[in-house]
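sorry to bug you again but im stuck and you know this stuff better than me. theres a chain ive been looking at and ive put its sequence and its fold in token form underneath. id like you to explain what the token line says about the fold, in plain words if possible. anything you notice is useful, everything is just below.
___
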Amino acid sequence: MNTDNFFLDPSQDTEVAWARRKETILVTLKMFRMTLDAVRRHSEWIETRHGITAVELWVLWELAQTPGLRAVDLAKTMALPRPNAESLLEGLIQRGLVRQAPDQESGSPGQFFATFDGQRIADASPQYGQGVLKAAMSNLPEASLIKLAEAMIDLVQHLPFREQSAALQPMADLLRPGGQAPIGQTQPQSL
């Protein structure tokens, strides 16, 4: 048996099966392009409208949903490394959009809250505060979400240039040339 043709339906003519497979690949590729374009456009819209990045909006959105988050909890919620979450929080503190308060139980610094201005920005984008891709996935029926996750696992296993660390990077940063933060925006030091 030729394993290259294993996925083809044996009841179909080989040329028809190959044509259908090629068309399915092209349709799927177009949908990936539309998905990435939506993420890029949303990012640009946030930067133009609010002067912050989409991932910074997501931080504000999370703090609006759960005031008093610690950096470690924010990192887990956003699937980011803790130092990245701390840098994002520090940058938002410097802009006056987030404030830090001592943990009321332990007295140690560590709880973060959106300021009035930060809350105002979070409230301006309630539906897409955590990003358009995550919002779209949140709206999928459970069965579709599971199928998507399974299909993505299969796809990623076949990617030749995959980088595991990319899983912990904000999508908008990955779409920029070189995977960098916007020009003119420096990454602050960790807290």
User: Anything to note?
Assistant: The longest strand covers residues 109-114.
